[in-house]
Design goal:
binds adenosine-5'-triphosphate; disordered N terminus; six-stranded mixed beta sheet; alpha/beta; Cell division control protein 48 ATPase of AAA family CDC48 subfamily
Length: 267
């Protein structure tokens, strides 16, 4: 498949503990994805087909991609990640062949998750599509989904911010027939996400996580991550003039003085 189809090994240390504010959604996703990937025999025994496709939708930056990666890691499935816009633009003229290759490769590898990010780019409503390529790619994706059988142990996860722009044929039974919304986090969700992203940080004594969660209404996971990173970066900028950069390493006593405060970012 080359470097573009981006098969990823699950070597990073991602776990369910790394995503916050999505407890109920995660429980459903685990039931729909982890169960069939880990225990396909349960579905055989019950005489039902395991889900083939799950659509995760919601605003940008709320953790759709993160959740797909975590599931792949936790289930130890092979993870194939493709981007909808890339399939259309980068592989123009070869888009369908590229999709076919990914499905074939996943079929050879055993339990696999194929993650299609921004699926709206390759599966818009066909009645509203002008381009021939888009029409052919949607048709190819439908055919590939229909061709998946439970023996192959492949689950396709698609993510989009715009679920209503998708071709309805894609959401029929046997295709992406399970849907999960990952919403903008509420206050408790924000608190969990802030705790995740400050886990390894030496926080200043006056940092009050509950207060930060209260005053970050509207922040999504990606915003909260950026907030924590920027707070840490600002500490670096502050202490930079006092560091002797000609030394091979920063002395321990100087490192021990580093504390991340957050208040300046939220006034
Ligand atoms: P897009 O629709 O733009 O692709 P997305 O919903 O897939 O966005 P991610 O790419 O998963 O969002 O999120 C970007 C980063 O923000 C993540 O790698 C993670 O660090 C952080 N993040 C987002 N949501 C959460 C969350 N619920 N818990 C913890 N971290 C989060």
């Amino acid at each position: 498949i080359g470097d573009e189809a981006e098969e990823e090994t699950s070597s990073s240390s991602l776990s369910y503990e790394d995503v916050g504010g999505v407890k109920p959604q995660l429980a459903r996703i685990r039931e729909m994805i982890e169960l069939p990937l880990r225990y396909p025999e349960l579905f055989d025994q019950l005489g039902i087909d395991a889900p083939k496709g799950v659509l995760i939708y919601g605003p940008p930056g709320c953790g759709k991609t993160l959740i797909a990666r975590i599931i792949a890691h936790e289930t130890e499935a092979n993870f194939f990640s493709v981007s909808g816009p890339e399939i259309i633009h980068k592989f123009y003229g070869e888009s369908e062949a590229h999709l076919r290759k990914i499905f074939e490769e996943a079929g050879r590898k055993g339990p696999s998750i194929i993650f299609i990010d921004e699926i709206d780019a390759i599966a818009p409503r066909r009645d509203q599509v002008v381009g021939e390529v888009e029409k052919r790619v949607v048709a190819q994706l439908l055919a590939l989904m229909d061709g998946l059988n439970s023996r192959q142990n492949i689950i396709v996860i698609a993510a989009t911010n715009l679920p209503n722009l998708l071709d309805p044929a894609l959401r029929r039974p046997g295709r992406f027939d399970r849907e999960i919304c990952i919403p903008i986090p509420d206050r408790d969700g924000r608190l969990q996400i802030l705790e995740i992203h400050t886990r390894g940080m030496p926080l200043a004594d006056d940092v009050k996580m509950n207060h930060l969660a209260d005053v970050t209404h509207g922040f999504v996971g990606a915003d909260l991550e950026a907030l924590c990173r920027e707070a840490a970066m600002s500490v670096l900028r502050e202490i930079l003039p006092s560091i002797n950069l000609s030394l091979a390493s920063i002395p321990c006593e100087q490192l021990a003085k580093l504390h991340v405060g957050m208040a300046d970012f939220l006034v």
